[in-house]
Amino acid sequence: MFEIIATRTARTLYALVMASGVLALAWLCLANFSLWVAVMAFCVGLPLLALVAAPLAAGGSLVLGIVAGLVAMVVSAVRQPRSDG
Fold first, then answer.
1. 3-state secondary structure of 50
2. What is the DSSP string of 57-84?
3. How far apart are CA 19 and CA 31, in angstroms?
4. How far apart are CA 79 and CA 17, in angstroms?
5. I want to staple 65 with a disulfide (CB 3.0 to 4.6 A). Which of 9, 19, 21, 42 is the partner?
6. Predicted confidence band of residue 2 (pLDDT cuts 50, 70, 90)
7. DSSP one-letter string for 4-68
8. Which residues contact residue 53 at a Cβ distance below 8 angstroms, ignoring those fewer than 6 apart?
9. What is the pLDDT of residues 9-59, one digit of tens each?
10. Cα separation values, 38 from 29, 43, 60, Å
11. Could you tell me the pTM of the whole model?
12. How far is 74 from 68, CA to CA, in rounded Å?
């Protein structure tokens, strides 16, 4: 249970962070440049963004995934009914 929740949380957070970074870069390029300059800036900026943001997003999502897995384990252990024998 821990592994499933930690992995699912980490993957979801990583996808959200990377997608929001790509969308922010696209908006920044399209809002400030003409179309052709925006396309060129996006093509140059996207690999640079991926090189910088991917390790940070992976590390953060790993930590938050582990925390979510631990919280799920604790909640699961507390919710289980105990028999007094």
1. helix
2. HHHHHHHHHHHHHHHHHHHHHHHS----
3. 18
4. 32
5. 9
6. confident
7. HHHHHHHHHHHHHHHHHHHHHHHHHHHHHS-HHHHHHHHHHHHHHHHHHHHHHHHHHHHHHHHHH
8. 17, 18, 21
9. 999 999 999 999 999 999 999 999 999 999 999 999 999 988 998 999 999
10. 5, 8, 30
11. 0.78
12. 10
User: If we measure between CA atoms, which residue out of 14, 16, 13, 22 comes closest to residue 55?
Assistant: 14
Counting every residue, how long is the chain? Answer: 85
Buried b / exposed e along 15-27 (16+ C-beta atoms within 10 A): eebbeebbeebee
**Amino acid at site 76:** S
Q: At what angle do helices 2-32 and 35-79 cross, to 10 degrees?
A: 160
Say whether pLDDT at 66 is over 90.
yes
The structure tokens listed for 65 are 């995934």
